[in-house]
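[scheduler] slot 2 assigned
[scheduler] job type: sequence-to-structure, two independent chains
[scheduler] chain ordering preserved from manifest
[runner] begin chain α
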Amino acid sequence: MYSPDQPLPTFDEVLLCSSQTTAEQVELFLRRCFIQCSGGEKIYTMLYADELSYDVSCRTEELFQHLQHYNCTYRLIILCNCEREHSYIPSVFSQYKVHMIPQRQLDEIQQYLQHHYRITGISRSAAYVFKNNMCVGIVSSKRAGMGK
């Protein structure tokens, strides 16, 4: 949010982890992170890494230890659920742990995201379905089974 004109992360910079994430997926992601590119400005992020299976977590640690010897300028963020801080990945990387508290107000964050997710110009896009021509939206309900 400090650079509002910078683009949001692309698909190759973010790995959304789950218990079904494979070691191969993590390996491909980490190799992209550690390969020295001409730009070198990308910040790679693993989300919910605490949900990786034990075997995949062990392989992730091994690969991380191996690859970091080849590139000391990598930029990697691993986000985990604080309620699962004793699972494998958060424990292994605990020496790098930083507790995050949002530094911006909710309305500032919403304005920032609206800036990046608004469809501009005249086009036939599904974004016209969402409020203010947004290309993403969240539909929720407090009652289950309401077709949302």
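[runner] end chain α
[runner] begin chain β
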Amino acid sequence: LSQARAGIISTVEVLKVMEAFVNEPNYTVWSDLSCNLGILSTLLSHTDFYEESQLFVKDVFSPIGERLGWDPKPGEGHLDALLRGLVLGKLGKAGHKATLEEARRRFKDHVEGKHTLSADLRSPVYVTILKHGDSTTLDTMLKVSAHSVVYTASLCNEKLNIPPYNQHAVFVETVLNTCLHFHLQEEVRPQDTVSVIGGVAGGSKQGRKAAWKFVRDNWEELYNRYQGGFLISRLIKV
């Protein structure tokens, strides 16, 4: 990938190498693949090739997703749980139909108190339903818990599937501002606030504008909150 980004080889060669790892069982390898595909997805997010890139993600991650399933198996270790969350989150964001349906079902059960989501599955489920949700989904997520809303940053990094009757630009702006202002509340961990601002800023041109305005408008409060600690430098960096 580094060679492709430097213009030395074609990105097509990178994708061919990635395809060779479909039977790989190791979490560390999949984490690297996921990160590199995330970089490519960001680069392609505002082009005509984005949807095709998501089809590629589904093709590469589907086999390992089917082998892992949603529930832990006897004898699994910590890395297996991490791998399951990584893979399901990747498939969910890419719009893999079966993963999306199961994530919605499990989130509904979680909200209704029928079956609590395990810690390992909360991140992939939250990210999936938010990526493919609407304003009602966001409202429900905000009510679940303060800390879980950190995952709303994912809304700002990807295209949203919004029903035709919603005005996409207006809704996205509302989501961005809701995410940002929600994270000024005292119940939210300081590092989560910085993470969300960074997620918004790094997601899109619209997100960068919203985050920059938010930081300017709330600079005094943010500065007083973080003082001279490392979080203020991290905030400025993002």
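[runner] end chain β
[qc] chain β: Confidence is low (pLDDT under 50) at residues 146-169.
[scheduler] slot 2 released
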